[in-house]
Amino acid sequence: MADFRVGETDFLVDGRPVRLLSGALHYFRVREEQWDHRLAMLRAMGLNCVETYVPWNLHEPAPGEWDDPGALGRFLDAARRAGLWAIVRPGPYICAEWENGGLPHWLTGALGRRMRTADPEYLALVRRWFARLLPQAAEREIGRGGPVIMVQIENEYGSWGSDAEYLRQLAEIVRECGIRVPLFTSDGPEDHMLTGGSLPGVLATVNFGSKARDAFDTLRRHRPDGPLMCMEFWCGWFDHWGEEHAVRDARDAAGTLREILALGASVNVYMAHGGTNFGGWAGANRSGELQDRTIEPTVTSYDYDAPIDEAGRPTEKFWRFREVLEEYADGPLPAVPPALPVLGGPVRAVPDAWAPLAEVLERLGDDEIESPVPPTFEELGVDRGLVRYRVRVPGPRRPFSLRVTGLRDRAVAYVDGVRAGVLTEESGTLPEPVAGPAEVELWVESLGRVNYGPRTGEPKGITGGILHERQYLHGVRARGLRLSAFGAEAVDRVSFRTPPGGAAGLYRGAARVASPGDARLELPGWTRGFVWVNGVCLGRYWSAGPQDSLFVPGPVLREGVNDVWVLELEEAGGEVLLGPV
């Protein structure tokens, strides 16, 4: 069996110096049926290694309840079949533009500021998770004939904190779980980040998108010895709803890649292939030095302007990177694998059945609870989805302004059953005053939990109160509607009727497909919500852009009739269109 080590100047395999040419590909953002194709694309680009994060919240949605915790092992087996080494980054925090940075909502809701520290309660939960996860990596280490060569401790911890004891104990836990390959940390190339995020005796790496020499000079001030590695070479970027699509010139990105390699360093291209934030798992950011500005939710596509696009196809950036990487290959690069099948032609689906949100909530929602103040999503146990808050305005009283404080993130408001406006965190007052008595409904949606910076882990829902003039309204009734509740059997229990045209609610239709394959789904005239095809949640759509269609992997479709559900939260359109990518 092979041996992988970190030498004084190089990575070593059986004592022979090697350069790691890695690419990020997150198994949870790609359909498992397409893993082999995507990994073959990495090899064809000239890479010898694949890197993946592991999102804790995906695999433990509730304490002690596991959802496919063996996925990492199967992905590592696929990497071995592809002839790639593998770098595993298990967190427990991963950032990754993923909901809550990968941390479970039930953990951050309960522990708050104690997360990502040496707090015993937090570490006990991490130990339980790692004991379930990491043996999959340990069993597939290079010394046991597998692909795993390195495992990361935490992730960009220097951007968050300075608890050296936490990092030390985390490394101990990883070793207790059977990991024997070298450990490493990764941080931005800043003194305070490397000081707070690195660990004595553990390889330190840096993340950047340009100015490679400056970044490595900073790393060398902290670590005079050891191999140089850019653990995240940001060759593109991600998008936020309502902003422009991020694009990086292919030749510019290839020039930086060439600079990294010319300096003798190893590299991990982030992202080599981004994939998709299926299931509403996209995270969010907050801008400003103190992250005190409004929420910036990440779109469903995680294309990242990567060299391999969301549908797995080579881009110009792929070919420019391949030219650079070919110079460092041991021999001729593999041929680019054949493209996967695409949808045979355009398909039009008209949703012919509809149910109002109240009916959907009645059939699929959690039990309603009453509380003096509005409970948060975390207090209700809701990860992704909606919460309906109901409160009564006493009367008789004259019209006053009605506002919501601490709203995260967006609410559609109804007064006595009539839509009264859309509220946001920065604009939380209804446009028209409300007189009493009145019944107020607020359908609050999380746009994605913050995944980076000091506001990671902040709660969702109404975190302040509901005020009529300056008076808090108490006796709030709340009921959650989780995205995970939308299974086929559950949706069959909903009482559908003829669509009224334009109303919010759950729409059901069918698309007849003759030749399944990768496709794009468009919703012209629709506003904001979520889409399912054959029970698979493709993610959020939003007319705010820049994303104007959703990727539908070929394995999701079937020959014949395909079920399409659209949960529209504001104003519906008409037809749903499927077309080839």
Automatic annotation (TrEMBL):
The keyword Transmembrane helix does not apply. The keyword Hydrolase applies. It comes from the Bacteria. InterPro entries: B-gal_1-like, BetaGal1-like_ABD1, BetaGal_gal-bd, Galactose-bd-like_sf, GH, Gly_Hdrlase_35_cat, Glyco_hydro_35_CS, Glycoside_Hdrlase_35. Residues 374-475 form the Beta-galactosidase 1-like first all-beta domain. One of its GO terms (molecular function) is beta-galactosidase activity. One of its GO terms (biological process) is carbohydrate metabolic process. SUPFAM superfamilies: (Trans)glycosidases, Galactose-binding domain-like. The active site is at E156 (proton donor), E232 (nucleophile). Residues 11-327 form the Glycoside hydrolase 35 catalytic domain. Residues 506-562 form the Beta-galactosidase galactose-binding domain. It holds the Pfam family BetaGal_ABD_1. Keywords: Glycosidase, Hydrolase. Belongs to the glycosyl hydrolase 35 family. This is Beta-galactosidase. It comes from Streptomyces jumonjinensis. The lineage of its organism: Bacteria, Bacillati, Actinomycetota, Actinomycetes, Kitasatosporales.
